[in-house]
Design goal:
Elements: H1 5-26, E1 33-34, E2 37-41, E3 47-50, H2 58-72, E4 86-89, E5 102-107, E6 123-128, H3 131-139, E7 168-173, E8 189-191, H4 199-207, E9 209-214, H5 217-225, E10 229-233, H6 240-248, E11 256-257, H7 260-263, H8 275-283
Parallel strand pairs: 3-4, 4-5, 5-6, 7-8, 7-9, 9-10, 10-11
Antiparallel strand pairs: 1-2
């Protein structure tokens, strides 16, 4: 995983207005690097998978795992040489985390304040995370097929936990930017840390709980993908991406817990049927860009 601490600090110092200036300045060079990380150069004659790697957040780090799995189904190497340089967006709210001309498979937008970064790009869109992302992209003039799904829903095909015994009533997952509250944890609860790159351990912990309470989007997605009902703990920022996911599964009336105590009195939403979503998402995978 590439972590560029200087790049993170620079973004914090710049603020929103200066970010727009920097984005405009970098636009002509956008395809030479990954997302906005100018120190992470894109490879020539290869498909460059763009994903957020500047912090250890499992949700972002699932992207290469899922893409490698899809490629393995046709015995294709992610390092395969191709006719020209390409950029590929898969898991994550990265459509506005960069400005590359890219092929999009399952990505989403983060919030409305960043949509100016969608302008004047060449996006070949095969699938998006949900209908909110699709609507925004169409407003910017892009052709967006009605194919939805965060590619993390494919994870049960990639990894099967060895045991599924329930050790806890609740598993609690906080978003990486969440200000942790003071909790009195007893034998009914376990805290599951999203700030990891060990997806097997993370998933093992999820399936050891009867119910997941999560302010992390991929905590919700992975839990539901493995058949564990989940309650959304109100995120401190960027709630749009959560509804983008829920709406992709056909669910529109989702309860949101204000805090942990509130979550203990909420009935988790019914699990969605992922079968059709998975089939359409897999059928939309852009194998052609690896030719």
């Amino acid at each position: 995983m590439k972590i560029d601490r200087f790049n993170i600090k620079l973004k914090q110092l710049l603020g929103k207005n200066m970010k727009k200036v920097i984005a405009k300045f970098l636009f002509p060079f956008r395809n030479k690097f990954i997302l906005f990380n100018v120190s992470n150069r894109a490879r020539t004659n290869q498909v460059n998978l763009n994903y957020w790697s500047e912090s250890k957040n499992l949700g972002d780090l699932l992207s290469p795992v899922v893409v490698d799995y899809m490629l393995s189904l046709r015995n294709i190497s992610s390092d395969k040489k191709v006719k020209k340089q390409r950029h590929f967006y898969a898991i994550g709210s990265i459509l506005t985390a960069g400005q590359q001309d890219a092929v999009v498979w399952g990505s989403g937008i983060l919030n409305a304040s960043l949509t100016y970064r969608l302008e004047k790009r060449k996006l070949d869109i095969r699938a998006v995370r949900g209908p909110f992302t699709r609507a925004v992209l169409m407003d910017y003039g892009y052709n967006v097929p009605e194919v939805y799904g965060d590619p993390a829903i494919l994870f049960p095909e990639i990894y099967s936990p060895k045991t599924v015994s329930k050790k806890y009533k609740y598993g609690i997952i906080f978003h990486k930017d969440y200000n942790l509250p003071s909790l009195t944890i007893d034998d009914d609860y376990t805290i599951i840390n999203i700030c990891t790159d060990n997806y097997k351990s993370f998933i093992n912990r999820i399936v050891s709980a009867e119910i997941i309470i999560s302010s992390s989007l991929h905590g919700i997605i992975l839990a539901e993908s493995y058949g564990v009902r989940a309650i959304l703990l109100k995120p401190q920022i960027d709630i749009l991406k959560y509804y983008d996911y829920y709406f992709s599964t056909g669910r529109v009336n989702i309860p949101v817990a204000e805090n942990i105590e509130d979550a203990l009195h909420i009935l988790p939403p019914e699990l969605p049927d992922f079968f059709k979503l998975r089939q359409k998402l897999k059928a939309a995978f852009p194998y052609d860009i690896y030719n």
